[in-house]
Amino acid sequence: MSVLLRFSWNSFRCTRFASTLAVQQHKPTNLNRIKLIGSVAEVYNENTRILFNLRTFDENSFYDVHKILVPPNVLEILSDEVIQTNNKLLIVGKLNAKQYARNDGKSYTAHRIVAQQLHIIDTGALDVNDDYSELGTTNKNYQFDIKDENRVQLESFIWSPIEHADKYSAFFLAMRYSSKDSTMNIVDKTDLISIFAYNDVLRNILKRQLNRLDRVRVEGILKYKPCIDSQGKKKYKGYIKAERIIKLITFNDIEKKKAANKL
Prior knowledge:
It is a single chain. The protein is an alpha+beta fold. The chain has five helices and eleven strands. Strands 1, 2, 3, 4, 5, 6, 7, 8, 9, 10 and 11 form an eleven-stranded mixed beta sheet that branches. A hairpin with a 2-residue loop joins β1 and β2 (49-57). It is globular and about 80 Å long.
């Protein structure tokens, strides 16, 4: 083989490698974000962490109770006054899911919100020494009208076949992430989060545009339904009531489509 030929072949290999490197390295990251505004209910201590329930009301005055986990790295920068019963908080975090067995042999998903940011909300509650006349009110229980919020944003792959029932469509979204195990080794984990669509427009999108393993963005509300676990105890299974579902086309999908069109 001549020097020129060897050079040309090596140049070709380098060129090919450079052209596919971006495709090989482009792995979309998952989005897992939940934002809640609500009031603290019960507070529990769990070793170096704190667990508490946060109650959020919707526009119809129905409420949901969310389990909030505050990890040590967040807890150490908070004052003791933040996580107190009846405090109104803004919480930004991520959604964790775990599967448990029900009494009918099926499974249910329990959710915890891992808090990444916590803020006390100033409700404008009047102090004993406040001058009511300056505020234009004589109501000693006066507070700002701060509405509760319950908002989830997820981006990942549809893991299960899409189920179409009479009144809803549903599927599992796979949220993959890395975490340390008990021996402090990094391990890959996958949480399966239930997505339910009741809106006819969203159901048509699921029927016509989406399939298993498609990448999607889901926006909605974290809701709960009662169920009975394998030991006969009442539990609450969590799910996302979808308000928006968008199919996401990745860079890899575009490259695969181009390659298929050339055949």
